[in-house]
Amino acid sequence: MKSRSSTLSRQLGPLPRSSETLRRTGREPVGQVSRLKTLRLAAAFAPLMLIGSTAQLASAELLDATASDPNKMAWMVGFPPPADKVIAYPSGNYFSFPRLRWTFCHFREMQATRRVGRGLGPRSVLPEALDANIDELTFSPLAGDDTMTWLESLDANYTDGILVMHQGQVVYEYYSGCLNAEGRHGAMSVTKSFVGTVAEILIAEGALDDAKLVSHYVPELSDSAFGSATVRQVMDMTAALDYNENYADPKSDIWQYAAAGDPTPKPDSYTGARNFYEFLQAVELEGVHGEAFVYKSINTDALAWVIARATGKDFIDHLSERIWKPLGMDQEADMMIDSLGTPFSAGGLSLSLRDAARFGQTLLQKGQWQGEQVIPLAAVASISGGGDPAKFSGAGYKTLPGGSYRSQWWALHNENGAYSARGIHGQAIYIDPTAEMVIARFATFPISFNAAIDPTSLPAYQAVADYLMSKID
After folding, report:
1. β-bridge partners, 355
2. Cα 272 to chain center, whole Å?
3. What string of H, E and C letters represents the secondary structure of the chain?
4. C-alpha to C-alpha distance for 402 and 184, rounded to whole angstroms
5. Whole-prediction pTM value?
6. What angle do CA 413, 417, 422 make, to 5 degrees?
7. Which of 280, 378, 431, 456 has the fewest CB atoms found within 10 Å of its own CB?
8. What gap in Å lies between CA 458 and CA 438, rounded to an integer?
9. Are the beta carbons of 160 and 443 closer than 8 angstroms?
10. C-alpha angle 132-136-137 in degrees, rounded to nearest 5
11. Average model confidence (pLDDT) for the chain?
12. Shortest CA distance to 69 belongs to which of 99, 43, 35, 39?
């Protein structure tokens, strides 16, 4: 254990400390988080943390939350910005740390996007009852002996924004780094949970049959691995696909998938797929459908294709009509697209923190929003009940023991029945039905996989849940 800590110390660099923040509570930032505290956590979860992180970490020594604050680093500031402060697509460094701390609030400026419209209706009200005591709540991180405060955990996880709702009221709201209340932030794979929710809505309405084969809806996928999988197997990521999602391997399928989705013109020498549809049709079978959960993002884009074919409307249209408009969202959202205008449904959504919280609160309220049943009760029950833990158990998610995956959502199966949307670098919508709590969080943690973040964030969420439940009469 000691040697592992030493190795990670060199890889992770200085531990996060408090950043300059814009917070609705208006209080001063805290001091530096204990270096030893986070190194112990990093050591305990090193095998999972380092998956997908090597490529990002090789090019730069990690800075803490204060030093890597994009406002302090002055990315893209000036008329024009100095050459060493330019972040530009398609240059490969726009998604590397610390540049990604700016990029995650500026995807609309970096890549082709389509608008998720909110319509012309009024914005729904989020009642507030801010609770300053939350900052000082303490908890013990996973595999750690020391304690940490809630406020310390925010900088430890490079939090750009976090909002806590309890019993329908905003009790905590915090912004830092690239984000403020008016801004939008990349949701990454939290996008998947919006897709899964739309699919469950359509199933509840009878417009989609999850027992049918994918090829029933999309004949073009008949010769691919997707063709023989059911819609449910794709929704729950138990489809058997020959596809590697190792972000650390430049030859991994994930990067070929990204190249296919790149909307810019391809060079003459390029021989790969030129859009998402072409890529999905070439995915081959590996294993047996339905046997085990294996997280592969292309499932979501296949599901979005099924949704479009089953209804005649693509995922962006459904997102606007089924969620954004009826919830009275604060802002429109942005969705990345490929050269054909196809949404990057696996991770291309950018939205505001408050709108992420509205979505989570609607699910917590069993699909109801301001007196209307926006999401069918059957859809919410299917999502919140989770999937099969036995199929999930072999996937290696050590920070989610006993967990499962269903309809593009992660179920914790803890005492509170919590379930969550999760995205790389720390994006989350965390729903705790027992505590009547929703947490929406955007972050830009240097390491992509949530196993690096869970050791502090999951017990922090539980500490807030316990505190809020203690206040209920």
Report:
1. none
2. 27
3. CHHHHHHHHHHHCCCCCCCCEEECCCCCCCCCCCHHHHHHHHHHCHHHHCCCCHHHHCCCCCCCCCCCCHHHHCCCCCCCCCHHHCCCCCCHHHHCCCCHHHHCCCHHHHCCEEEECCCCCCCCCCCECCCHHHHHCEECCCCCCCCEEHHHHHHHCCEEEEEEEECCEEEEEEEECCCCCCCCEECCCHHHHHHHHHHHHHHHHCCCCCCCEHHHHCHHHCCCHHHHCEHHHHHCCCCCEECCCCCCCCCCHHHHHHHHHCCCCCCCCCCCCCCHHHHHHCCEECCCCCCCCCCCCHHHHHHHHHHHHHHCCCHHHHHHHHHHCCCCCCCCEEEEECCCCCECCCCCEEECHHHHHHHHHHHHCCCEECCEECCCHHHHHHHHCCCCHHHHHHHCCCCCCCCEEECCEEECCCCCCCEEEEEHHHEEEEEECCCCEEEEEEECCCCCCHHHCHHHHHHHHHHHHHHHHHHCC
4. 33
5. 0.89
6. 75
7. 378
8. 13
9. yes
10. 105
11. 89
12. 99
pLDDT in tens, 1-46: 333 233 333 333 333 333 333 334 434 444 344 333 433 443 333 3
CB within 8 Å of 28: residues ≥ 6 apart? none
> Residue ranges per domain, the chain?
1-190+314-473
Distance CA 454, CA 143 (A): 11
Cis peptide bond upstream of 80, omega within 30: yes
Burial of 120 (0-12, 13-18, 19+ CB in 10 A): exposed
CA 57 – CA 446 distance, rounded (Å): 8
Greatest extent of the chain over all pairs of C-alpha atoms, in Å: 68
Report d(CA 213, CA 216) in Å as an integer. Answer: 5
386: left (phi over 0), alpha (psi -120 to 50) or beta: left
- In 3D space, the residue among 361, 325, 357, 331 whose CA is nearest the CA of residue 105 turns out to be 331
Residue 359 falls in which region: left (phi positive, over 0), alpha (psi -120 to 50) or beta: alpha
For the sheet containing 349-351, what is the strand order?
113-116, 333-336, 349-351, 185-186
- Known catalytic membership, residue 153: no
Catalytic site residue from 68, 96, 176, 189: 189
What would the pLDDT profile of 235-244 be if each residue is shown by its tens digit?
A: 999 999 999 9
| CATH fold for domain 1-190+314-473 | Beta-lactamase (3.40.710)
Q: Identify the CA nearest to 164 among candidates 189, 135, 199, 185.
A: 135
416 token code pair: 């509170």
> What is the model's pLDDT at position 61?
66
419, two tokens: 């379930």
